[in-house]
Amino acid sequence: MALTETKVIDQITATENGIVLYREATRILKDGEQIAQTYHRTSLTPAQDLTGQPANVAAICNAAWTPEVIAAYKAQVEQSKLGA
Known about the structure:
By secondary structure, the protein is of the alpha+beta class. 32% of the residues lie in helices and 42% in strands.
């Protein structure tokens, strides 16, 4: 009986305001058959430091975070601070 644990990014989503959400699944396998699974979700905002993020997530962020998206996100944050 061999138990193994694997981690995989199984979802990556970019929202309309540039926030990138991703889900990491941790799977426990017994003799190659999955017996358990848990999830950890993370969100990243435009222009956030990507140090330590998985390469496939960073690639999506770099594609989604155009200068226009970053500027619009920062403007939205500033606007919400003024309205609060």
